[in-house]
Every structure is written in structure tokens, then in C-alpha cells.
Write a structure and sequence with these properties.
77% helix; 4 helices; single chain; mainly alpha
Length: 106
């Protein structure tokens, strides 16, 4: 779960993107596609930790995978804040609670 300070930063990133690129339907689509791109970078880094590409060998570390996962989280939060009419933090909190309740954890 992102902290209040982190959501403040996310809102600042959204405002920056809005000022640079606007918030057209095309721009929102690009923000959503950016999430897919970042997820691909997680996969690429993980493959690199396994040495699965014989040409590249062991090209990444678990720290690289963690950094890419953080990029996914930030990109998803920016996308959520970009499309939500309400409070993205509240939306995320409610979703996380539903998932936790469903599996029986706090």
C-alpha cells in the first residue's frame, strides 16, 4: 500500500505528465500501455537472473527485478490516478481490503 506521501508524489507525477502531454484519451491509453511495457521489463530482468538467454547469460540480479517491479507499481499508480474521478488512494485501499478479505488475511 502506498503511503500518503507516496500518493502526493504520484499526483505530482500525474500533474507533470498532464502539463507535458495533456490528458486526452490517447494519452491515457499511452499511460496504460506504459504499464505493459514496464511489466515486460520485469520479465526481461527475471529471465536475465535465470541466464535463460544463452547470448546474454546471467545479465540481471534480483535487485534489478525489484527495481523493475517498483517501476510497475509507480506506473500503475500513475495510471490509476490518471483515470480515477475519485481518490486513487481510497480506490487502492478498498481493492486491497477486498483481496485480503477474500483470502482471509489482514
Amino acid at each position: 500500500m502506498l503511503s500518503t506521501d507516496q500518493w502526493t508524489t504520484i499526483r505530482s507525477l500525474v500533474a507533470w505528465l498532464d502539463s507535458e502531454n495533456g490528458r486526452s484519451q490517447h494519452e491515457i491509453s499511452m499511460r496504460l500501455l506504459k504499464l505493459v511495457e514496464e511489466a515486460g521489463e520485469v520479465a526481461q530482468a527475471y529471465i536475465g537472473t535465470q541466464g535463460q538467454n544463452p547470448r546474454k547469460g546471467h545479465s540481471h540480479t534480483t535487485d534489478d527485478v525489484a527495481a523493475e517491479l517498483c517501476d510497475v507499481i509507480v506506473t500503475a499508480a500513475v495510471a490509476l490516478a490518471s483515470i480515477s474521478d475519485g481518490d486513487p488512494a481510497a480506490i487502492m485501499d478498498a481493492k486491497l481490503k477486498r483481496i485480503a478479505d477474500r483470502v482471509g488475511v489482514q
